[in-house]
Amino acid sequence: MIGSFGRHMPGELYDQWPRTPAGEPVAPKFLTHCTSRDIEDVMLVNYLQSYGIPAAVIHPGDGAFGKVVLGISGTGSSIYVPETLYDQAKDLMEARPDDELQSGI
Predict the structure, then answer these.
(1) Domains and their CATH numbers in the chain
(2) What are the pLDDT digits (tens) for 3-40?
(3) Which of 23, 50, 63, 89 could form a disulfide with 59, with the two C-beta atoms 3.0–4.6 Å apart?
(4) Is 71 in a helix, a strand, or coil?
């Protein structure tokens, strides 16, 4: 998957994905797996994008077929981010809503 990852990205995501010095897309790194039933995956991707972190959604197994036919993936969604932005994405996922209030910001 990693070797051909960039070729399977939609145009906008491909344009946003960071590049290596050689101009190739940075390798993706698995961030988390979400169920698709409660739009957790959509909310997480939008949250990451609001902080400038592009995220790719992969529906494992036959999940892509279910997404097309039923509107949801029965196998859930795996979220991948550029490995260079993984730590920042992980920190954002683990942040609590009141962290900013407690730090006095």
Answers:
(1) 5-15+27-95 (3.30.70.1530)
(2) 455 555 667 888 899 999 999 999 999 999 887 667 78
(3) 63
(4) coil
**Angle in degrees, 0-180, between the axes of helices 40-50 and 86-94, rounded to the nearest 10:** 120
Residues 6+ apart with CB under 8 A from 63: 36, 73, 74, 75, 76, 77
CA distance 82 to 48: 11
Provide the CA 3 distance to its chain's centre, in angstroms.
18
Backbone φ, ψ for residue 92 (5° rounding): -65, -40
Dump pLDDT digits (tens) for 55-69.
998 877 654 544 555
Joined together, the tokens standing for residue 95 give: 């942040």
* pTM exceeds cut of 0.85: no
